[in-house]
Amino acid sequence: MWELPVEGRLRELSGRLHGPTRLKADLLTEARHALEDAVEAYREGGLSRAEAERRAVAEFGTVGQLAPGFQAELAAGALRGLALRTLAVAAVLIAAGDLTWHGSSWSAGPRPPAGYLLLASSIHGIWGTIAGLALAGLALGALAARRDSPGLVRSARAVGFGLTGGLLVGALAGGALFGWSVRLWDAALTWPPMIIGAVVASAAWFSLARSARWWLLSARGPRFARR
Q1: Are 215 and 164 in contact (CB under 8 A)?
Q2: Which of 58, 86, 123, 198 is deepest in the core (most CB within 10 A)?
Q3: Cα separation of 48 and 53, whole Å?
Q4: For the chain, what is the largest distance between any 2 Cα atoms, rounded to a whole number of angstroms?
């Protein structure tokens, strides 16, 4: 089946882009509007629809020319989304983490092992580092989307991978602390704040994992990967 040039170019461009679905759709919609405006301008000049689309597409650029810029916007948007979601989760976990233990039946018992205390205290440091990387990612993602600077792109990419690695460390440390807590105190499995905290934390980590996946996929794009 014969395909009009505008639809063909948008389909080819869509196949080259990787990133958050909604942002990708928005970028392709903007591209469609720009192409349609150019087509209408050519048609007002007396050209047929097919010829107007052909000229508009040729003027717009090849997929090889367009994809790097679009992919850079997707990567910057994915990094901003991951950073914002990380900051929200970090604020909740840092502020509410100790509440899961407040008033528990084992709070007044023997002190836990030194290794457990060290792991527990390290959680705040890990999340402080993660929050710092998220703030840097938020700033660099915004700048990289607005400025055509290889240095900014490389810095944003480095921070994005650092943030993803930090989240992995945070997930492992949090999971280890929770598992160790359950081994030390059987009552933790029936303590309502612990149950609620585990459910909320699981939902938060699922959301972060999804955002991190989009970031990693978008970072594979031509401009973010090669500059």
Answers
A1: yes
A2: 86
A3: 9
A4: 87
The domains of the chain are located at 5-61, 75-226
pLDDT tens track for 48-97: 888 999 999 999 988 999 998 898 888 888 999 999 999 998 887 776 66
Q: Are 83 and 212 in contact (CB under 8 A)?
A: no
DSSP for 80-136 reads: HHHHHHHHHHHHHHHHHGGGGTTT-TTTTSPPPPHHHHHHHHHHHHHHHHHHHHHHH
DSSP state of 113: P
Q: What angle do CA 40, 41, 45 make, to 5 degrees?
A: 110
Helix (H) or strand (E) holding 157: helix 150-184
In whole angstroms, what is the distance from residue 119 CA to residue 30 CA? Answer: 49
What does the alpha-carbon distance between residue 218 and residue 207 come to, in Å, rounded to a whole number?
17
